[in-house]
Amino acid sequence: MEQRDPHIQWFPGHMAASLRRMEERLAVVDVVVEIVDARLPRLSANPALEQIAARRPWVRVYSRADLADPTITAAWVASKPAGQVGSIAIDGKRQGDLKKLIMLLEGSFQKKGTGRIMIVGIPNAGKSTVINGLVGRNVAKVENRAGVTKSLQWFRVSPRLELLDSPGILMPKIVTETGQWMLALTGALPRERYDARTVIERIHQYWTEHHGTAGIPSETLPTLEEFAAQRGFRRKGDHLDLDNATRQYLKVFNEAGFGRYSFEQPEA
Length: 268
Prior knowledge:
Layout lengths: L12 H13 L5 E7 L9 H7 L4 E6 L6 H9 L5 E6 L5 H12 L8 E7 L5 H9 L17 E6 L2 E5 L11 H9 L10 H15 L13 H8 L10 H13 L14
Parallel strand pairs: 1-2, 1-4, 2-3, 4-6
Antiparallel strand pairs: 5-6
Helix pairs in contact: 6-7, 8-9
């Protein structure tokens, strides 16, 4: 098999600049809302953003809860770090979940009148979906790729709530190879920054070793070649079309087509 470089990193210049602007805006913010991916809450929590959040009352939102193992997500919600005034797991497209989030946010600050919240998170953690749901219209771009939002924007949510969207900020260095492919798989990194087939190989190996354990469904995961054959991805001469199969494989995986999964659990 061809050997491909497994190392994946991405920290463009605009992220460092955005981090500085976010720190400057804290003076006018009442609450910081950190969005993490419910499938990997620890990996998708940027320590630099958590340092910003710790300087204000902060709320953690576990997005994409509809894709994660519900029992493990509930355990994450119950494990509130110091300084956190609330936490909630949501599907950003469900109105019932969004109403609960608005109630939580409106109750997270003490002052009268309109409260201002800043929403932070790594790229493609579900921020834009949550923001569009809160505002009630498509004001933030939603794409299954990282690095779409690159500026800070204010939006009105309710008579008592304004929110400041911010660009997704990844950590300058993803320390472990496992963390690299997990973040690549769930969309935190641009596709051009990693080899998608290598990521699929990694997840297949991981799934084979862990399926049936906490967070990973008991069903086996197909290899890319098996998936391509099952779905009819073929070229002339009856050769497997692995390029198109790769894109579809990642899409199906990220829509929980192989089952809901959680890569991480909170510490006991």
